[in-house]
Design goal:
Elements (H helix, E strand, L loop, with lengths): L1 E9 L4 H16 L4 E8 L6 E8 L2 H9 L1 H13 E4 L3 E4 L5
Antiparallel strand pairs: 1-3, 1-4, 1-5, 2-3
């Protein structure tokens, strides 16, 4: 399993549009094969910042997700609406029994 995180901060005048784009992206992503969890949260310390948390079954599912048109469109929206963003972090998780 892979965990993916990211953070994006909107400008005050673009927060509503960025939040709407993020929620649409999350809903689309949840329907994709291999998506175990996909969520977006407003940062309690900075209400203009959105934090993304995702879990993917494997690298192939994540690569397919990144290649989708919807993912490219969302990244374009981030570039247009965000004041800042962080690089996406992909963390492999080893589950032990």
């Amino acid at each position: 399993m892979l965990v993916v995180t990211g953070r994006v901060t909107a400008r005050p005048e673009t927060f509503a549009a960025l939040r709407e784009a993020a929620l649409a992206h999350v809903a689309r992503s949840r329907a994709e094969p291999g998506c175990l969890k996909h969520s977006v949260h407003v940062d309690c310390e900075d209400p203009l910042t959105l934090f993304f948390y995702e879990e993917w079954a494997d690298r192939a599912a994540l690569d397919t997700h990144f290649a989708r048109t919807g993912s490219h469109e969302f990244m374009t929206a981030i570039r247009e609406l965000a004041a800042t963003s962080t690089r996406v972090k992909v963390l492999p998780i080893v589950e032990r029994t």
